[in-house]
Amino acid sequence: MAYASATGRGHLTRVRVGERVFVVVIAALFAASVAVTIVWCASMSKMGAMPMPGGWTMSMAWRPMCGQTWARATASFVGMWAVMMVAMMLPSFAPVLWRYWRNVRGTGEAGGVGLAGLAGEIRAGGLSTLMGIGYFFVWTACGCAAFALGAALTALEMRWPMLARGVPLAIGLIVLSGGALQFSRWKARRLACCRKAPTCAQTRPVDARSAWRHGVSIGLHCSYCCAGFTAILLVSGVMDLRVMAAVTAATSAERLAPDGVRVAHVIGVVVLGVGMLLIAQALGFA
């Protein structure tokens, strides 16, 4: 009886320690990604921007710096994009990762004692880490596509001044479309998928391959759901900390609030208002 009681207390202590370690790791990762993102945005802001026809400025994030090759420029952008996505998406992704980790612990040897229990804890942590890497791999791939598209568009805008003059209006239309998307059935379905992201309680991943595929699957659902926000971020200021903070808050609110659809509609109203204001400014009415 005494041995069983001691074993139970030991298991409970290990569970609590594991939960605290999880929280500390997530908090440290979030803080580090936010700090690096702030430093990156500050360094890019010091480099200035290129004035363009139409009264707007082009971010230098889409062009190689002096003496920099396109390969290095791409690697630099994608690397910083990945860090930025960790800072922006981790608040809404952390609860999913938490549920995954707890379920993996329950299906393995983490509940055992001695070396078997420790091995189970390490295994659960490893699979959860791999799932998280799979999730952010999808966002990194989105960064690659975003840089290719942004570099191509900036090249065209620099070549054709007439196209550059239409950019402010195009930005307003994209923001307006992002706001309208918040009211669509497509958005509602995508948001439901994210809010009810399948955890290992359903898929029962027991190996590295399953954990990776699970993370990629959730990452794809998430990227679809955030398509409107991502487009707004890219056209409104990929280096603007205020836009990043607003997108992070909106993404987290519509996924974590009790009534996500209603929150998405409220966000949509705000975004529609901003889009109409940008269009009015582009047309000279404001």
Kindly summarize this structure in a few lines.
The protein is mainly α and 286 residues long. The protein has helices at residues 2-46, 70-107, 114-159, 161-165, 167-181, 185-195, 200-203, 208-225, 227-237, 241-256, 260-282; strands at 49-52, 56-59.
Task: Give the key terms.
two-stranded antiparallel sheet; mainly alpha; 81% helix; 3% strand
Describe the 3D structure.
The chain is mainly alpha-helical. The protein has one domain. It contains 11 helices and 2 strands; from the N terminus they run H-E-E-H-H-H-H-H-H-H-H-H-H. The chain has helices spanning 2-46, 70-107, 114-159, 161-165, 167-181, 185-195, 200-203, 208-225, 227-237, 241-256, 260-282, and strands at 49-52, 56-59. It has a two-stranded antiparallel sheet. A hairpin with a 3-residue loop joins strand 1 (49-52) and strand 2. Helix 2 runs parallel beside helix 10, helix 5 (167-181) packs antiparallel against helix 9 and helix 6 runs antiparallel to helix 8. The model has no long low-confidence stretch (mean pLDDT 86).
